[in-house]
Amino acid sequence: DKVIISPKILLEEFVSHYLAEKEEHGPVFWDKTLEKVKTLKDDSKNTVSYMVKEFEMKKAADAYARAAVSKTGSLDMSKIHTYKYNEDLFKKVTTLPGATNHGMVMVLDWSGSMHENLLGTLAQMYNLIWFCRRIKIPFEVFAFSDRYDTDNKIYGNEVNNKYFKAGDVALSDFKLMNFFSSNMTTSEEMSMMHILWMHASNNYNSRMEMGYPYNSPENLRLGGTPLNDTIIAMMELVPKFKKETGVQKVNTIFLTDGASHGLSGVYDYKFNKEENTHTEEITRFPYSYLKATKIILTDPVMNKTYEVKNMTNDLLRILKNRVPEMNVVGFFIAGAGRNGKVKKNTLYYLLPGDS
In angstroms, rounded to a whole number, what is the distance separating the alpha carbons of residues 90 and 88? Predict the structure, then answer.
């Protein structure tokens, strides 16, 4: 509740902002971006239909793979003549298990480096949302941000003790903007899609096509990459989502274009010998801590201990162990240059060794 900003709050804040911009700067940008989203929805129908077809085929194949064949107790008259050498004269019935209920949780990177790929990423995400609507499965979409409500953030070694107790990994002061939910109405959904499209279209190329863009809300601006913090939050949110929706299988999807920034450290008490008092503060991880220090994380829910070799990968491992039958899917969004090519530094980051 402290981390999530609900769709209702986001819509109230962002719609009023863009309506004021429309009043001040005219309706051209508003109308053209709205038309763009509606056209995208119309154009995506074939893609979504294909996704639905593939999903239904896969679901049917899985069902037949788990099919059980059993005897009915009634004689199969077509086999009676084989009674001298065949002991199995009964009719059989094939029972298919009930279809598995699916749910989807999407986690979107809202960092500054996403700006050049934001429109394409939103288009892909919208396709996933429309897909979920078509097959009627519950879904949630969160964007992680360290820019929301910057005036009230906690920095440095300051501690909000409502979050932590001694020994906990200290999370940064980030927020999860709950952009979309299967509980939203279709009109609310379209309104949010339009808001995000206006924000993502605030660039030079869009000016040539859709007119001069509006100023974006301060709380919607792109910032850092608290991915690791978000994965830890998902350890609570995904099981909660699964319980509340009653789904059997959750698909958790991360859309991000880079490595997470480091975790703050460990929340702890420090004893002051001179004053004979304890103070609450964060013990910082040393620089390049994964190389210099051996770190052990314990999941108190599953009562498992992990030695950390790669913080993001190991946090994803803990998340997956928290939720049985969950698929975790990661999309790495490679930054496209002016010619549509992947940047060299992106390849150097991804490829091991000197290659």
Answer: 6
CA 12/CA 17 separation, integer angstroms: 9
Q: What is the mean pLDDT of residues 239-261?
A: 90
Distance CA 349, CA 345 (A): 6
Averaged pLDDT, 203-212: 66
Question: Given the structure tokens 């009964």, which residue do they identify?
Answer: 90
**pTM for the full predicted model:** 0.81
Report the C-alpha gap between 43 and 63 in whole angstroms. Answer: 32
Rounded alpha-carbon distances, angstroms, from residue 133 to 104, 105, 136, 236, 237: 11, 13, 5, 25, 21
Of the candidate ranges 84-98, 115-129, 256-270, the one whose mean pLDDT is the lowest: 84-98
- d(CA 15, CA 109) in angstroms, rounded, equals 22
pLDDT(354) > 50:
no
225 in Cβ contact with 111 (< 8 Å): yes
Residue 48: its H or E element: helix 45-65
Q: Which residue has the tokens 């009674």?
A: 83
Q: What is the DSSP string of 260-314?
A: PPPP-EEEEEEEETTTTEEEEEEEEPPTTHHHHS--EEEETTTTEEEE-SSHHHH
Q: Return d(Cα 265, Cα 285) in angstroms, integer.
A: 5
How confident is the model over 158-203, as pLDDT tens digits?
A: 555 556 777 888 888 899 999 999 999 999 999 999 999 999 998 6
212, two tokens? 């001069």
Burial of 161 by CB count in 10 Å (0-12 exposed, 13-18 middle, 19+ buried)?
A: exposed
342 Cβ neighbours under 8 A, 6+ residues apart: 334, 335, 336
Helices 28-43/7-25 angle, 10° precision: 130
